[in-house]
Amino acid sequence: MTTYNETAVLEDHPIPASAHALPSQAGPREWLGLALLSLPTILLGLDLTLLHLALPALAADLRPTSTEALWIMDAYGFMIAGFLITMGTLGDRVGRRRLLMIGAAAFGVTSIIAAFSTNALMLMVARAALGVAGATLMPSTLALISNLFADPRQRALAIGVWATTFALGMAAGPIVGGVLLEHFWWGAGFLVAVPIVLLLLLLAPVLLPEHRARKSDRIDLLSAALSLAAMLPVIYGIKEIAKDGFGLSTIATIVAGVLFGLLFVWRQRRLADPLLDLDLFASRAFSVALVVLLFGLVAVGGTMLLVTQYLQLVAGFSPLVAGLWMGPPALAMVAAGIGTPLLARHVRPGFVVAGALALSVFGYLMLTWLKNDASGLVIVVAGFSLAYLGLGTIAALGTDLVVGSAPAEKAGSASAMSETVQELGASLGIALLGSITTAVYRQTMQSRLPDGLSPEVEASVGDSLWAASAMAQRLPVGLLEDAQSSFITGFNTAAALSAATVAVLAVLAGVALRKIPTLHAAPQE
What we know:
Layout: E1 7-10, H1 28-49, H2 55-62, H3 66-94, H4 96-115, H5 120-148, H6 152-183, H7 193-207, E2 210-213, H8 221-244, H9 248-270, H10 284-314, H11 319-325, H12 327-343, H13 349-368, H14 376-404, H15 411-446, H16 455-463, H17 465-470, H18 479-512
């Protein structure tokens, strides 16, 4: 059995076009390599949403506070987003395949630790470590796809598959989580990574080429630290405002994050080899496409969390049934992921994105009509299916819009930015919309709490719906229904914010991206 032991070297100067008439065509081995690279890509998306359905069971076991629960949910995505560009540079130095295998091994070990966590803090740390390991996987997979497929048409198809598999992983997370929770404990979902990691480590030397630069760029650790110092305080501040309102310490935390962000930008402009090439933002198409990806995923990521909580804590479904009800939205996303690139051959991509996002707006508006009655399930499934239609569209076309609007020599930086904003958007949505829903819930429940409750019960019911559900047997008659109604009020508020945000994105895409040409099929040779 032969293996890819050769090291592909990036030359300082491009190879003249006359060096070869046509790029080599990928064969079965390369397509098998793509299938192998799709496994960690699906896993990354899966881990981003796998805990949505497990949160009630996790809460009953580990008893996290509402803030700890949100950190458990989104620490993974935040750390991926913070380290993506750094790990992309590291891959150039040590080799993309090598970094992929090191990161996969770390991901597998950390997943086992997360699965058997005994308290909320341990799980929070494990999720953060999973994010760092996951950050090694995403840029490595996309870069290796570029090495496997030299033909531009085949490479475009392969990148489309790559983008779709990540979105499919996100969609499958609640379903897989529901199936596992039906038979195992909440930590079983993390163990899904173990066989995938073992298969990747076994087959990567056979199916994947090594790739590293002859002249490695110096990794600027200060830039990596500044990017984290900018992002994490701002997100923490958002959580604290939702929990306790505005305070001097909270505002100071957010201001500190903004200042670190300015320092990060200043440093990137002074470095010869920056972690983030800011010149890319001079392209309006590049910047607008990133904005659509970022805020589109903010709306979807946060709404997904609320939908899964509704299905379990209000509709009363088991994790398995709740996961199955997430199937129709997943099918809508797959249909959009397959159909919109075909439509974009005849209709300009900006208009395709704008139209899909307009349908998503109607879906979010449907969720603002949600009430605690028999019609709730239909509204949730139909509304979220339209929201997922928008997700499928931006997942399929977003990466192509970002990479295609950047100069060819900067395609690597553009790809890293696309990955970063998608991870950050989904995680930020969980934090922001989850915090808004929690804040509205607490404010609404204050007037509904009866006298005579024990301090423990009053604290739990006043904190969140999942905390109230954990002690449902100890609640007075009707109080759990009041808690469910308060949660739905918060859900309505978050959905209204999502609808307004996505409406702005639809207009922005239709106007700013209107000049991007259609995606014509490649001419026959």
